[in-house]
Amino acid sequence: MSLSNTPAPSGPPAEEESTGAALAEPVRKVTARWVTGLVLVNVGINAAFFGPINVFIGQQAISIDAPSKEAILSLVTACGAAVSLVANPLSGAFSDRTTSRFGRRAPWVLAGAVLAAAALVAMSFSGAVALMALFWCLVQLGANAAYAAITAAVPDRVPVVQRGGVGGLAAMGQTLGILTGAVFGAVVSGNFLVGYWLCAGALLLSVLPYLFHRNDPALPKSELEAFRLGLFLKGFWISPFIYPDFAWAWLTRFLVNVGNQLTIVYLLFFLRDVIHHEDPAAGVLVLTGIYAVMVMITAVVAGPWSDRVGRRKPFVIASSATIAMAGAIMAFFPVWPGALAGAAVLGIGFGAYLAVDFALLTQVLPFAVSRGKDMGVINVANSLPQVVAPGLALLAVAYGGGYRTLFLTAAVIGLLGAVFVVKIKGVD
Q: Which of 50, 137, 91 is nearest to 377 (CA)?
């Protein structure tokens, strides 16, 4: 991937003059400094998401009611994910209409990060399940507002020929965030209060480089249509009959993310109760580290590779099948070496998937004027699995035969995601 470090021309190109810089199809490659800001925002958001999901909420659940820890974890994470289903597309849609002189996306990145950080601090003092759920919902509200804005910034500013590479680096940022959350979980030695504070601080610091170098043109009020509530709400429905590629892309991302979430949602409990790891939090860190290394390698290789060959679907199909294979390994080898192998295979598949599928998604967006809203609708395919997966996981573990059923279910659902990618016709 080529990133330009040269200063941008003093005036916009002709393509941007005709429609306005905020809405034009991008033609100039983004700078390394801008991409670094994008990557760091992804690091902070994912540390704020996955530090609690993978470690701190589980530890807090044990401190409140150890026999009901699975049910508490499922309830809290499902409530937060339900909020994200609304927060992500709604924030994206409002950012589309933002006419601040600081740009359309940057104000939402800042406000979302501040809200999520404050809620993480409040969550650290929660001694009841209801308060845990309430503050986790606020974390999801803020973090999803920031995430909707930063993902919309990619089709706003990155040309198609660079999106695979940028998508790979964004995936690397997501993975570093997940790894950062696991590191926090390991170093605080069960002190989830400190863990929540670390996640909050990481989130706030992560957004600063992007905000100072945002390359986020302001939307002139003359380009903004009058607000009509009915049309605004109607815009969230994107017909699968009129835009079938968008619909199939959404469905495949949803299925792959369900499979991935099923594999990781009870990882702390799997290490504790099945493998009997002597330090489950440290075990999560080891597995996350292996997963992270594999994700970063395959993401930064597969993304630019797909840019060079001009094809996306073969990469998405192969990576989805690899993700499914990780679930099968965890199902049939429920021992520590099996967990290590499963983490590596999951990282190999998910790294390539995150990079290339993100680029594919940006190529099936219906309208330039609503990139934030449309990416928010796509991001529901990331959030909805957080609602679905905890319930499926609880059913599989408590009533369906245990962790083998859980991981096999993850494998089957991931394979379905690979199959349906072939339905996308407008992208090779």
A: 91
Let me know the angle formed at the C-alpha of 31 by 29 and 32, rounded to the nearest 5 degrees.
130
Backbone angles phi, psi at 255, to 5 degrees: -65, -45
pLDDT in tens, 196-255: 999 999 999 999 999 998 888 888 887 777 888 888 888 888 888 988 999 998 998 899
What is the Cβ-side half-sphere exposure of residue 271, based on CA atoms within 13 angstroms? Answer: 25
- Domain membership of residue 6 (yes or no) is no
Decide: 282 and 59 in contact? Cβ < 8 Å.
no
Distance from the first to the final alpha carbon of the chain: 19
Angle between helices 69-96 and 371-398 (to 10 degrees): 170
CA angle in degrees (0–180, nearest 5) for 10-12-18: 155
Q: Residue 226 gets which letter from DSSP? A: P
Report how far residue 359's alpha carbon sits from residue 47's, in angstroms, rounded to the nearest whole number: 23
2 occurs within a structural domain: no
**Cα–Cα distance for residue pair 62/105, rounded to 1 Å:** 38
Task: Name residue, tokens 């991409």.
Answer: 35
What is the largest distance, in Å, between two alpha-carbon atoms of the chain?
64
Number of domains in the chain: 1
| CATH number for 328 | 1.20.1250.20
Question: Distances in Å between the alpha carbon of 74 and those of 64, 205, 393, 412, 428?
Answer: 14, 29, 8, 21, 38
- The shares of helix, strand and coil residues in the chain, as percent rounded to the nearest 5, are 80, 0, 20
Which of these, 240, 208, 270, 246, lies nearest to 405 by C-alpha position?
A: 270
Domain that holds residue 297: 28-423
**What's the predicted TM-score (pTM) here?**
0.77
